[in-house]
Amino acid sequence: MQGRIIHINSTKYVVKTSQGDINATVKGIFRKEKIVPLVGDIVLLDDENRISKIYERRNFLTRPNIANVDIALIITSVKKPDLDLVLLDKLLVNVIGNNIEPVICFTKIDLLDKKELEYYKKIKKYYETLDIVVIENTAIAYFKKIAKDKIIVCCGQTGAGKSTFINKIDKNLKLETKPISSSLNRGVHTTRYVSLYEIDNFLLADTPGFSALDLANFTPQQIRDAFGEFKNSNCKYKDCMHIKTEGCEVEPKVGTKILNSRYENYLKFIKECHESSSKFFK
Ligand SMILES: Nc1nc2c(ncn2[C@@H]2O[C@H](COP(=O)(O)OP(=O)(O)OP(=O)(O)O)[C@@H](O)[C@H]2O)c(=O)[nH]1
Ligand SMILES: [Mg+2]
Ligand SMILES: [Zn+2]
Fold first, then answer.
1. Is CATH 3.40.50.300 the classification given to domain 61-206?
2. Do 156 and 209 meet the contact criterion of CB atoms below 8 Å apart?
3. Which ligand is in closest contact with the Cα of 108?
């Protein structure tokens, strides 16, 4: 029987099949060959409900660990934890670089004062110019429209409000949520496992949050290509990295200036990428 893994807790797997959700294990050969099944994998079960085959993945992410998704909903809090544009840009590279459509979902707008709200609106507007769908966690009906027939993973920082958002999408779920730690100003890793939930006509995954992510698996060119504004820029050189190149003008054609943080984060990621590759070649 064929099905999709919707939950993994160490060696226990739950597989959604046409005959309901089945508790499964994996065949020993997987462990021997170090094949790690992921939530989202389409698998074959043998007569003893053991996963005996994993079908080819269309894509996968390692942070969070999930396979075969259409959209990654990047849940980004604007306060508590504070807006982290480094993490947002990193997640965008990670998602776009893995050929998954990103959608940004900002949370906790209600906590902003007037001045902070103005700054936030400017940031939101900029990301919208990158042809990325940007929503707020109050846009439930609009999200459901985007989500129709799709497999979506919620990803982002711990405490950003992933589980809270999913609870709003499906009131029956009642996933555990917890206030962030006031001393650390970040979440407390409430969600421990990746789980896919069937809601209306889509599948939505809750995942454990994180605060750091590395882009060690990406080449500098892949990182550059994930910055959409460079593609529409005025740079006259073919295959330019847009770093200290004489005559290179990366200002986008659309009339907006590149957000300082975007270009700074680009340089930061390229530098980190070189550092990790030089470590690798030592
Ligand atoms: N004021 C406000 N609080 C929110 C909002 N969204 C979530 N929260 C609160 O933020 C805290 C963290 O939310 P969670 O949903 O547990 O965060 P998470 O992203 O699932 O965190 P992890 O499971 O640790 O990755 C909870 O106390 C929520 O009630 C929001 O839009 N506004
Ligand atoms: Mg959670
Ligand atoms: Zn250039």
1. yes
2. yes
3. 1
Pocket of ligand 1 (CB under 6 A): 107-108, 110-111, 137, 158-164, 177-180, 187, 189-191, 208-209
- Find out whether 203 and 166 touch, Cβ atoms under 8 Å: no
Tell me what the mean pLDDT of segment 43-59 comes to.
95
Q: What is the chain's alpha carbon radius of gyration, rounded to the nearest angstrom? A: 20
State pLDDT tens for residues 15-42: 999 999 999 999 888 878 888 999 999 9
Looking at 2.40.50.140, 2.60.40.10, 3.40.50.80, 3.40.50.1760, the CATH number of the domain 2-56 comes to 2.40.50.140
Which protein residue's CA is at the shortest distance from atom 4 of ligand 1?
108
In this prediction, residue 161 carries a pLDDT of 98
Q: Are 59 and 22 in contact (CB under 8 A)?
A: no
Start-end of CATH 1.10.40 domains in the chain: 220-281
Task: State the pTM of this model.
Answer: 0.95
For residue 206, give the ligand 1 atom closest to its CA: 20
pLDDT at 16: 97
- The CA distance from 214 to 281, in Å, is 18
Could you tell me which of 221, 211, 222, 207 has the C-alpha nearest to residue 93? 222
Q: What is the DSSP letter of 161?
A: S
Q: What is the pLDDT averaged over residues 90-94?
A: 97
Name which residue sits closest to atom 7 of ligand 1, judged by CA. Answer: 161
The encoded tokens of residue 21 equal 């959700």
Give yes or no for residue 255 having a pLDDT over 80. Answer: no
